[in-house]
Amino acid sequence: MAKGSKGEQKRLREQETVSMMIRLYCRKNHKVGIDGKSKGDILCPECQELLAYAEKKIQRCPFMENKTFCSNCRVHCYQSEMREKIRDVMRFSGPRMLLYHPFMALHHMWCTLREKKKEAKRHD
């Protein structure tokens, strides 16, 4: 990972995670390709649109330094239709990330648990 500010590193990591999850979802659900199978990094048009949208939102996020993931953010900037699509992707890909990208999945789980602990301390 390239050196840079903490926020920029988090931004790149979040983009990479979202990209992997959308690619996994598309490969398993949409089977893009001539023979009905996914070919490398090819995404269906719907998933390409979702990935571009998610990357744009991550790039423009003013809270990147202080938040872990979009789901933990106080401000939900996704349009409702896109938020529902990304939720579908997360529900499907989340558990499967342990098989396909275990270190990324474990890092995500660790960050989520850490954020929940911080949140609990704030409310005490």
State the gist of this model:
By secondary structure, the protein is mainly alpha-helical.
Description:
The chain has 124 residues and is mainly alpha-helical. The chain is built from four helices and no strands. The model has no long low-confidence stretch (mean pLDDT 83).
Outline the secondary-structure elements:
Layout: H1 6-29, H2 45-60, H3 80-100, H4 102-123
Keywords:
124 residues; mainly alpha; 0% strand; globular
Tally the beta strands.
0
What kind of sheet is the major sheet?
A: none
Class of secondary structure makeup: mainly alpha
Number of helices: 4
Apparent shape? globular
Note the gap between the termini.
36 Å
Mean pLDDT: 83
Strand share of the residues? under 5%
Topology pattern, helix = H, strand = E: HHHH
